[in-house]
Amino acid sequence: MADNSAQLLDQVQGALAAGTPLFIHGGQSKLHLGRKVQGQPLDTRSHQGVVSYDPTELIITVRAGTPLHELEAVLAEQGQCLPCEPPHLGASATVGGMLATGLAGPRRPWAGSVRDFVLGTRLITGHGKHLKFGAEVMKNVAGYDVSRLLAGSHGCLGVITEVSLKVLPKARAVANLRLQVDLAEALQRLAEWGQQPLPISAACHDGEALHLRLEGGEGSVAAARDRLGCETVEPGFWEALKEQRAPFFQDARPLWRLSLPLAAGDLNLVGEQWADWGGAQRWLKTDASAEQVRAMAAGAGGHAVCYSGQHAPFHPLPAALLRYHQQLKASLDPQGIFNPGRMYAEL
Q1: Residue 184, Cβ density class (10 Å: 0-12 exposed, 13-18 middle, ≥19 buried)
Q2: Which member of 45, 77, 103, 314 lies 3.0 to 4.6 Å from 65 by CB, making a disulfide possible if both were Cys?
Q3: CA–CA dist 164, 52 (Å, integer)
Q4: pLDDT over 90 for what percent of the chain?
């Protein structure tokens, strides 16, 4: 596979010399998750391929332009996976886009987020340098952890060229369950089950019933399935949820993602909702205004992001936190050429 890092570095250095903003992108499968960027396109997809992979050490290093489905196929051949279960949201999704958006699937509360599995990265900075951060080891805590800061940065801090990831073996046994209860009872049961050694790896209420996924050893999964006493169903629900293919997501109303404390409980949200991540993540279809949705989320101790391409998709930052973002941006991108305004107008 191609190592196109030299050409990417040349393009960044040329943009710095000319003061030209850059629109950094991969397959653009998540283009709707951010504000529109005006700038010269910098496409990372020419820079792809697995740099190194040691299945025995559970570590893989891959170039940012590599299609996400190709990375998952390489891991699957060794019976391994990305534990954070990142959504593709399109066939063109890349590894760089996975890291830049920081999105994780239904397993996230039990396995961890994208950033939790990032060991190191290579990044072209706004100083025109190609730098390496972190390392291919688990214990690497000295200094500023730039690699993990890149998760969810939407390309605003530099051009990600490589990422080293911790991977894990696939579960030996999986069971998909369904329990006919309302949301309030589902949240109560999940709170109780959270205090017990149950191998739950996904939990979502779809407005009608609670869906559960159990993963682990054959014995523990079978015992938990018998104990919970739920109906056993086919596994397609989780893929449809992760990739937003379920009928719920086809509703023409704007789609909102609310991140809430587990203790938020059953909220009186205007519209239709799914409670993912055991209640910590709510998918909401509503015609309510952005101000109303964000006020509801903030009132419950959380925040809201619009997935429908609105002008300001991300929840406004408090002034103090915005200053930290601006200082970080200035440190890595002093001329402000990388995806300017992608997340916030001030960045």
Answers
A1: exposed
A2: 45
A3: 9
A4: 89
- Distance (Å, whole) CA 106 – CA 90: 17
For position 143, what pLDDT does the model report? Answer: 52
Between CA 279 and CA 266 the distance in angstroms is 9
Q: If 0-12 CB within 10 Å is exposed, 13-18 middle and 19+ buried, where does residue 228 land?
A: middle
- For 5-169+323-332, CATH gives 3.30.465.10
> What residue spans define the domains of the chain?
5-169+323-332, 173-306
- 99 in Cβ contact with 207 (< 8 Å): no
Tokens (6 digits) for 144? 């500023």
**Are β-strands 22-25 and 40-43 bridged in parallel, bridged antiparallel, or unpaired?**
parallel
Decide: helix, strand or coil at residue 121.
strand
Residue 40, both tokens: 């010269």
221 pLDDT higher than 50: yes
- The structure's pTM equals 0.94
Mean pLDDT along residues 149-160 = 96
pLDDT for 264 equals 86
Residue 80 CA to residue 73 CA, distance in Å, equals: 9
Phi/psi of residue 22, nearest 5 degrees: -120, 135
**How much is the pLDDT for 144?**
60
Question: 65-110 pLDDT, tens per residue?
Answer: 999 999 999 999 999 999 999 999 999 999 999 999 999 999 999 9
